[in-house]
User: Fold these one by one.
Assistant:
Number 1:
Amino acid sequence: MFRLFIYPFFLLVFVSCVKLVGDGFPDFEKVPVVNSIIMKDSLVKVHLSFTAPIDSTKIEYITNATVDLYVDGEFIEQIPYVDTGMYVSSYTAKADAEYRCEIVVQGYGDISCSTVMPPISKITNVEFINEAGLSEIGAIYPAVKVTFDTNPDEVCYYEMVFTYKDKGYSFDMFPNMPDTLFYDIDVNEITDPILISEGLGLVVFSNELIGESSYEMQVNLWREDRGGSEMNMVPFVVGLRSVSYDYYKYVKQRELYEITKGDVFFENPQPIQTYSNIDGGYGIFASYACFESDTIYTYIDKQY
Amino acid sequence: MKKYLLTPLVFLPLIIFAQDKIHVSGFVKDKISGEMLIGALVYDTATVKGTATDYNGYFSFVGKADATIKVSYVGYNDRYVRLSARDTVLNLSLEQANELKEVTVVGNQITNLNTATISVGEIEQIPSITGKPDFSKSLQAMPGITSQNEASSLLLVRGGDPGQNLYLMDNVPVIYVNHLGGFMSVFNSDIINAVDVYKGGFPARYGGKLSSIVDITQREGNVNEYKGSLSIGLMDLSFAVEGPIKKDTSSFIITGRKTMFDLLYMGLTYFDDDVPLMVLGFHDINAKYTYKPSYKEKLSFNFYYGDDYISLWTDNLDNDTDKIRYYNVWGNILASLHYKTMLSDKIHSSSSLSYNRYRLKEYAGFVLDGEEDSAKTYSVYNTAVHDVSLRSNIKYSLSDNWKIETGLQSSVLAYQPTSHYSNEEPKSATEYIYSSENALYLENRIKLLRSITMNLGARGVYFMSDDYYDLSLEPRASLDFRPNSRHVFMATYMRAKQYSHLLLTPGRINSSEAWLPAGDEVAPSYTDQVSLGWGMQSNTGMFRAEANLYYKTLYDLSIYKEGYGSLKGDTDWYEKIETGGEGLSYGAEVLLKKQKGRLKGFAGYTLSKTTRQFDNINNGKAFVFDYDRTHSISLSSQYKISDRYTLNMAWYYQTGLPYTPTIGRHFVRSAEKSSYGDYFYYESFVYGERNSGRMRDYHRLDIALNIHKTTKRGRRAMWTLSLYNAYNRQNPISYYLNNNDSNEIYRPEYGQKPVTLKQYQYSMFPIIPSVSYKVFFDKRENYVRKPFNESLKQFLHNLLYHQ
């Protein structure tokens, strides 16, 4: 008898209701968006597009902008447009230099953005641990202990990435598949105190709390990579990126942006925009210099 | 020279009305139960001057020798007492009136225009979602008080945050005040005697929080006879038992509640192999023992325990060898000892010693492949506050026109904002932070002229936490002008400081409350508030009206930094807190009340604006407060159809809540490379200024029919049939974007092409019928069972002839 009451009650209370509020949105002013992360030993690339209103599916590329590149204050070249909003320079970026772009988009104000690419920091040792601990859900995880140099006299920002490279195979279905495929290895539970102090589950950090010229950081990894291969069968490379401050902010804030994208129950905090350092527009202009370790062969039981 | 000039001012109150005056003090209580009557009026019938009883049922005023005083309280027969020529202490009992007889209440009834007072009767009249009375929901109908969002019990007072309300249960602070994420309050209306909410103009005896003081006085239990009640509703089962331990001397009262759907849910999930065994609910128990060796002395002991819980096991799942055990439990435990005594006819003192603990514990345990010995892991997260407090208060009538109230409040608190362990390894800071808050206060109630009374006071607080300390002085002042017995004008100023901060993410059904003390990193917050008010009551007491204007500033506020919603899992958790915020709130409140007749009720209206400003939020620009509502209207009525039937209705209208709109989209570069070694670009949202959008307005009608009856065994009983949201208004809880009408939120991801988006609202709580039944166990001879057809006839007659 009681069920007769309780079921309708829960049905009524917890069955939610969705209703269209309106399909019209307020006018949204179109502004340029700059996306450029300059990497050491890579060509300088700048991606330009416009913002778009919510009720439009088309995000326009900017194809006719003037993009002037300066390195350490010296004009290098006007970067030519290539395709799909991308402007590609013939200049190969070097570490420890300041990059600036002066961008003119017709009908919009001039945009100036700059970044300082830090010098590289060297990885001095990498140690792979096949069974480093148990995660909160009881899975055994491997880890890498990475020792690297840092300059305790100035605030430096880093990102560590773990990539394994696989051989690409050409199929009829994927005729453009390159010779080498790259897979990022996901990071497991954070236990290193420097990473914990950053407050997010990312391997992006500053050296403010390190205070030494060398630091050994343990990063726990997922046992299985995205390709489904187990870690003890995969050769991989550790990359230590010395990143600009804007890059550090961008990566952290993008993580918060992802977390707060919204929830119908308002369980999430207020939404937060992705970090932008472009005056008069949106986007990011940042840089990093990456030092890659030797390839780590992690196979234990059998040869790769 | 200055002091000489001031001397006449100091003695002015003593000079005025010095002749043939006597001091009258004492208590007013219910004749049968011995329960203290709070807010009873005691006044001289000739001059219509007097006072109201406080939360101890105590009163004290100066009257004329040989005058006649009248004691009145709604629902009770008036009582007249002839005073003697000397100072007098009275122990007065009032008898409950015949229900049909109206009580005439006149005089200076309006005591504080900044106070929303609500009686148990009023709480029971306002329909609620569960069909059972809830005092928080009733308070939210008062001007200046709103809820966080639909069905929430959290109070937001004059633009304050939920953590800026001091809840006092018999003068003891309570830390956690909600059940089921705010769905119900922890305060059981079965044990509540009266509730006062101070929205501003706090007397100096109150402090520690910025926005309101919710002063809840509990009942003491019947000293003459055993009574009880049992109530069953769709949400919970509750009971109350009370009675004398020694007649006229000591009494007890015990109340308890337990959700029922958790047991049902557990039973249903136990037999279902596809879903984990799950329990969700709460239970609480309140107990009070009171010992009165004489009417001048009282000793009482209070106990409260309540927990909410979500628990999950996967043992019952058929084809899963990995086992999970998860629980999340949170709640209060409180114990307090009180001693109250009348030291002389002019001095009344009360003291209490209390312990209160709030804690939240989250446990997740895993057993892989069912091998308990080999791979059992767990994670534990705790946050807690412990509070040991000593409070002492003395009321002293210094002269005919000068009363003082003074006392001290000393608390030692231990905060554990976050503690996170994984397999016994600490994953975040686990240490307790100890603090001590000590306050001394003094209030002076001085009658300057016959029609002007001033209340001047101050509160000095010394706070310590680790190496941090703070000394503050909080001035309080109010001025009453009563040109006649029906009108009152009031002006108040107050400063209050708060040494604890509540961080919470709204909307979660499991608690996300984390408290942290002020310190070097997080400064104490403080507020200044001024208010002007006018109140009047009609000659017959039929109507009452109040209007208030207020202006409130808040400083050094703390909230989560943008993007964060928990302190969990971080050693450097202070980095997640944004400090140094400022707030501004101002508004006007109007209350109209009809207090007599078959139709009673009130109408409340609030016009307000509230903003917040933090350096690193919304680019440093002031933004609309998360729960700002420009207009708020509440209409509540109770129509007594007959002795047997009462119809209660309440209608609410509020401006829609603000939200942060999504206004555009743009490309961002991916964080990771594709397997081809390239970075790619995908869609990201552009948000407008924080809270710059408004959801649709909120309105709702609730209806409840109370049917009083007598059971076959002669027990008094009541059925409540209610409709929540009677016209099924779809009030928005949130807005979100999607390209279809499912309740999935559109989330731009890598490789996803932009789609045309529309804005949808998500709403819960459509029309909800509910039923509850309450049976009272008291003396059978008090009630006479009426034949049903007679009652029905009366009901139809009243309905047809609008009586």
Number 2:
Amino acid sequence: MNRSKKLTGRDNRLMYSFLMPSVVFVVIVSIIPLIYTFYLSFQNYSLLKGSAGFIGLKNYLMIFSDHNIRKSILITFEYTISSVALTALVGVGLAVVVNKIQRGKAFFRVVFFVPMMLSGVVVGVLWRFLLNTDLGVINYLISAIGLSRVNWIGNASTAMISILIADTWQWSSYIFINALAGLEAMNMEPVEAACVDGASRSQLFFRIKLPAIMPVILVSIVFRTIWAFRSFDIFYSLTSGGPGTATTTMAIEIYRQAFNKYNIGISSALSVLMFILLMLISLFILKRTMQEDKKE
Amino acid sequence: MKIKPWEKVVNYVIAVIAAIIAIFPLYWTLITSFKNYKEAFAQPPTFIAVFNFSNYISFLSQNKILLYLKNSVVIAVFSTAIPLILGLFASYAVTRSAIRGKEGYSFFLLASRFIPPASTLIPTYLIFRSLNLYDTLFGLILLNCAMNIPYVVWMMRGFIRDVPMSIEESAWIDGAGRVKTFFSVVLPLCTPGIAATAVLSFCFSWNEFMYAMNLTSSSAKTLPLTMMAYMQESGNEWHMLATAGIVIILPTIVFTVLTHNNLGSGLSFGAVKE
């Protein structure tokens, strides 16, 4: 379409007016508090008494020397990696299975899609009930086949497993729905050609299908990683970060420091650290994803 | 390659087992909501229960529950409508305009979603207190809108891109301007995508917990907070927790089922190329 420069300029001005309200809204509501967090992280600030002044990097030194806070960083990473790996495996696996179904496909699609749309607190409480040591159904079924009941939530060594169970149950949905969309949109020609050439089942999957849906899976892994890293609802409702600090992630620790210990300075420093870490992770994964895209 | 019949059966069995795993927790919650206090944790537990709405009646008639329900609805509706309006315009600009740096703006919006809510919880709390936004629906709506706008922009990109340029161009030739084309051509063709995006925004706002918990005290509380209230007061009232849980998840399930096709493809945020 041939337009004079004047028309394009006017069109661009119109388009800016389309775009800017959203950008400005997000800047004001999301970015300004972030800047304030940076500012607060350098202060000695008690929720009860207000600011006691600028203390430089002292808060940061404290968060790196505090054993519990360091532990929360470690736990956040452990959880994120486990969660993304588990949900990716289950999600892709389910997508492959459902894609092959002809009758009733829509039913399975919906059933496996619903969990991710549920409220995180409801999922947490629901699994808290299911995994209850004495009263939960899971332990009842376990004892019915002769094994001993497990204290899923009260035991430090199994608490994270409880979280991962609930988490995988809920969030495999997200990977599933994306992988399925990818499989359904996949070009069947290479698959058929490979079939004619006598490719085996696993060759078909790993060499042709999987690379074809990789872009979609990677995008969903990016989002899943981000959402997992900052996950709060399930942790708060299923284990409350416990027992003790066994499932205290950075998000939970930030909350505890601010609202249980009233230490805004430390909480803000940890918030800044969490933000920087998540930004680095996101940009790193995005970069890898875009490299994959460019290969096409 | 022909799929042998037994492979189909195995495939189906796996799917059914997985479906049972997916549905069972919800089913269990539902029948627990039909039980009374003692039945809820009888051992051995009963796996079937008769329809019984007495828990629901007592839940909804509890002091303030209807207020929290209203709050949730108001917040979710406004936090869907406003981001849809703002985001649709922005998404169109990002997809179809010649603005330099539009990819940058688009990425900026996405990156705003990389900020952990936990990181901005405290400053938001302090700002809200000083601006008298604490415990207000308006404050929560602002936050939820900022959360949803990027997702609207990114989800709609794919749907807008699917509208063929030729249709837009023929509208231009007929004399319609950008704005008229946007409203009378592009938007109507994107209706399924808009519905799916609306459902996503609604669910995200409806389920939002962390901000709702920390930035409200009495008048702006939302429904998910009732779950925690039951946990703290009387941690063993599982039948009421189940009831509250079902009330909270029911709208999201209904909306998801209605729009699952477009919701699914929209959630890849443009990665699925048709």
